[in-house]
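Subject: two folds for Thursday's group meeting

Dear M.,

Sorry for the delay on this. The cluster queue was jammed most of the week, so I only got both jobs back this morning. I'm pasting them in the order they finished. Each block is the input sequence followed by the predicted structure tokens. Could you check whether the formatting survives your parser before we put anything on slides? The first protein is the one we discussed after the seminar.
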Amino acid sequence: MILGCAGPVLSADEIALYRSERPWGFILFARNLQEPQQIRDLVASMREAVGRPDAPVLIDQEGGRVQRIRPPMIEKYPPAAALGALYEADRDKGLRAAWLMSRLNAFDLLKLGINVNCLPVLDVPVEGASNVIGDRAYGFTPQVVAALGQAAADGLKAGGMLPVMKHMPGHGRGMADSHHALPVVTTSLEDLDAHDFAPFHALKDEAMAMSAHIVFTAVDPQRPATTSPKVIEEIIRGRIGFQGLLISDDSSMNALQGTLGERAADIVAGGCDIVLHCNGVMEEMKAVVQQVPVLSGPALVRTEAAERAFRVPDGLSEQALRAEFWALMGTA
């Protein structure tokens, strides 16, 4: 599992929970982030609690409206749609900008001890879809999304971080925000395969992905992808061909039904390797950990493969890359 925490400093109860349950990783949100040294101390205390100095620490640092660390700590980055607009005007510049922005994310985040960024967003929006994706998407065709998503993933890896593709197998047709309600997609499997699934297939060899809390009636009319053995085995592992580490989207989101313990059990039974719980509410975390088994079998193999995928940063100049990026974006 991956757990959050309530504030900028770990409580005694949080430390005790982490020590006894030993989550595989952690995730940070704006409520946890005050200034650089505080973030470094928080990350260090999380890793100390589980006795693993390299435990994955995740964040959503996409740019645009989903950027957990903001100025003055880290400069404001554009949304994915701005990279897509540049790509439409000049393909090479768009790809370079997507790579550069992720490479700059790595400079920013590794200094704070954060080593996993939850991007690229590989969802391909359709007309009328919920704005929960909106300008977080690189574009409106699978080809543009896949090209820029790959560049973004490569930039993170070059900088010593790992990406998490989201939201597999595709959130672009969701007519509801899965933070608040369960989206149901009735599109045919053929159309899903050609449009929604295509970017994930193109990036299927990446180490990690996050699931979508969406029902695809063409595959499983009863359960969202996150808890559906049919979607995970037949689509994500089968049709898409992703064999990496599959992390659930946040188990506290209202698209999922039942108690937090029931949701965690359903996520494990559905075939996700890792249960994600984000909000740091202690009673919810206690309910989740009671239902999550010790990593073993294929899930353990995939976590070990993800851990081996981290690289040494490429040694490039941050100052030069930062100047190049902003020149490309037209704000130098």
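Second protein, same layout:
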Amino acid sequence: MEHPENDDHFHALQVNEGTSDKPTVNPYLKDFRRFKKKSYTVEEYVNGILKGDISILSQAVTLVESSKLEHQIIAQEIIEKCLPHSGDSIRIGLTGVPGAGKSTSIDAFGMHLLKDSHVKLAVLAIDPSSELSKGSILGDKTRMERLSVAKNAFIRPSPSAGSLGGVARKTREIIILCEAAGFNRIIIETVGVGQSETAVHSMVDFFLLIQLAGTGDELQGIKRGIMEMADGIIINKADGDNVDKAKLAQAHFKNALHLFPMPESGWEPKVLLYSGYYEYGIKEIWDMVDEYIAFVVKNGYFAHRRNEQSKFWMYETINEQLKSRFYNNKDVQSELKVCEQQVLSSQMSSFAAAKKVLSLYFKE
């Protein structure tokens, strides 16, 4: 477009050409594609983990969590080589209803533990996943402000991916990698949404249950299943005007524990008060954990429980592999679609359809 104003006769006004539209995609993006993360060999992964390299540990954990077959093969080799260097840690499971202050408490607990220079703490925080998108916010780490920047702490939030009790399927294997990297205290935080907590109980040495007082739900907390698994119960937010309510809840829980049979460990669970916000009662909680560990090591239950957990996870792995191979079988996938339509149209019962698909898979 010509601008007559730019003629030499018009000195007072100058109109410049406009700029062209910018591209929607960064033209320099291709240059950044060259800077990919380095891929390591199995030996490099193992050596890095044993040296305590957090970057390599994080990448190894990503491989463990991956659903890709090639990643799983590498991950299993890494785990096998790290296994002889694992087992030397205290594993703590922590559960409670949403809003009980689990993440905030872990931040306080972790800072208390890290006062000892010999302690290295790994926190495996399990986040609930969306049933629709399968995604997670993974926001637990944001509540661990001090711990997330602490020198000897490693925090790994993971999506639950719909697994039992909100515990990621690969948490057990990640524990092995963290122990091989030198972490001698491991805290596993569950989702705590009322699902079975058997999975987390089967991979920890001490199972800690966080409760709240004054919520009008004391009876819910006294339900038998979760109470029988707990090695210790702590009542959070025992501060300010809530102290009396917390003491009343403490009495209720103590009375309820007396109704249960003595645990196999021989340990009588304790009920303690504390405030995660004001950090009141933190030392007493970890004194209880240390007392429990010393008690079960002395009577042999610690080693017995570890052995039972290893056996449990062997069968769990078998079940997981059978399920995975069944649903990934191409013949099964096509037969499932046919049987599903027959069930929906009432041409076949659900049980007959299931038997037909299983017979195809096992070639009966």
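Two things I noticed about the second structure. The chain has a mean pLDDT of 83. The beta strands are 90-96, 121-127, 153-159, 185-189, 206-212, 232-236, 270-273.

Cheers,
T.
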